[in-house]
Amino acid sequence: NNAGVFLKQMRKKKLRLNIDKCEFLSDSVEWCGRTLSAGGTWNFSHKYFDQLLRIQKPTYLHELAQFSYLANWLMPSIPNLARLKDPLLKLIPSSVSLSDLKKRNEPIAWNTYLESVFEQLKSEINEASKRKLKVYDPDGNLCLFMDASSTHWGLMLTICENCDPGNKLDNTPFEEQKHHPINFLDQVFLI
After folding, report:
1. Which residues is 142 bridged to in the sheet?
2. What is the enclosing helix (H) or strand (E) of 77?
């Protein structure tokens, strides 16, 4: 059984378990801010999403930078995060540290466009709070989707439930394939 194999490996590596921090026969566990389920899915703990969603529109650049850093932590569950944040990040001087931004206490010059970007980002964070990501399975039918524009690149790793992308004989039409996301990643090209 899996528990026996795990305990054998622990003994072999001379590692010990703290019984007070162990959970047995649980349907889900929290680990490093993530909730892992017995069904093979994970998502970030809701307390992180709740904290971000409660944040009001920042008044100062250092508050916007802090919001951005928190959102970065959730990147694996938010497709196109860098593209969404880009207009807001352009407000923050890249060569200035967060502590220097705090000292400057520089207000944000909000306009209708930037306010809509901020609200769209919060909406995506809300959607991500509902998204269950599959746990990586090296034996699964993995697919990597990539795309790029002149300013951004992005990728999505999925596991396909009903197709085998590595098998040239598998002709399952794309619209019939059942992909479950494992991770999202994107970035802005530095010019």
Report:
1. 159
2. none
